[in-house]
Amino acid sequence: MNRQSACPISIQVLCKAAGISRQALHKHQQRELHGAEAVDYADLFESVDRIRREHPRMGARMLYELVRPQGLGRDRFERLLLEKGYRVHYAPPFIHHTKGVRHGYAPNLIEGKTLRDINQVWQSDITYVIIGSLVYYLSLVTDVYSRRIVGYHFCGHYRAEGCVTALKMALSLRKGDTLDGLIHHSDRGSQYNSSLYKSLLKRFCIQQSMCKEAYENAYEERLHRTLKYDYIYCWPNNNQQQLEANVKRAIRNYNFERPHSSLGKKPPVQFEKYLNTLIPDHRPPMKIFSQQEHDQQKQVF
Asked: Which of 45, 89, 135, 160 is most buried, judging by how many CB atoms fall within 10 Å of its CB?
């Protein structure tokens, strides 16, 4: 071996080849050497427990975004929480109970649509909440673009009045906003096809859209599961008053605190405020799958 080939490669050359800076390498070495000593584990688990009280089934990856512990990378944080018993056990799939109508329903107006702002598509649906032998119903209205729950109503009946109350809450929250071109999307449940509900949509010049398949209302279906199994059912529900308080608490936590990966790891309300700092052309687009795109995805998997 000649002397030239025996010369060691400089750190600068190695960093350049790896595409990292010398500062980044130094920080990584410090984390490896001193990371364990730099982390206050008692304080870390206290922070995690505090968040879990409000978000009982929040996963390790989302917890990391909220805690951001010094001296601890995301992968190591996730491993640590799993080792300490913070693993989330997923709930069984929900059962869909909406009673649809066979005539008089609206066409699907959102399939394949691209959104760039709030108040372009609202989705609505009803889900049941079972406590013991009692069944309650939660009507929701969600802004699809920001994922924000803009209206809700919780009651012990399945009539259209509950859905109308949720829609009125949404209209009150967005009072002063332009609703030009807004589409209201739902399943074909009889509540949304009632004259009471349709007349309210018509009064505000909101276009009505309905889906035929469950995946065409997927944002609401997934939201039901999150609210019930990640929040409401995780807390004590000994009476109706306590249950109603937990519903309100769950919706508040979801809107104001729960990060969404599709929203740049921001909660819905924070994301809406962030949108105000962007000009419309710079806002991230959101595509609603068409029938053809959905079928293609099924073929892939």
From this structure: 160
Rounded CA gap, 60 and 45, in Å? 12
Please provide the size of the chain in residues: 301
State how far Cα 216 lies from the chain centre: 17
Q: Render pLDDT for 23-59 as a digit per residue (tens, 0 to 9).
A: 666 656 655 554 444 567 788 888 888 888 898 888 8
To the nearest 10°, the Cα dihedral for 34, 38, 42, 45? -90
Rg of the chain (C-alpha set): 24
Q: List pLDDT tens digits, range 200-233.
A: 999 999 999 999 876 667 778 889 999 999 999 9
- Is the torsion defined by CA of 92, 94, 255, 273 positive or negative? positive
Phi first, then psi, for residue 131 (nearest 5°) are -125, 110
CA-based end-to-end distance of the chain: 54
Q: CA 247, 266, 166, 181: dihedral to nearest 10 degrees?
A: -170
Q: Which of 155, 97, 146 is nearest to 122 (CA)?
A: 146
Is residue 21 predicted with pLDDT exceeding 80? no
3-state secondary structure of 90: coil
CATH T-level fold of 113-299: Nucleotidyltransferase; domain 5 (3.30.420)
Tell me phi and psi for residue 91, to 5 degrees: -80, 160
Sign of the dihedral through C-alpha 85, 86, 87, 89: positive
Q: What pLDDT is attached to residue 298?
A: 43
Q: How far is CA 165 from CA 23, 161, 198, 235, in A?
A: 57, 6, 13, 26
Buried-exposed string 92-108: b where 16+ CB fall within 10 A, e elsewhere: eeeeeebeeeeeebbeb
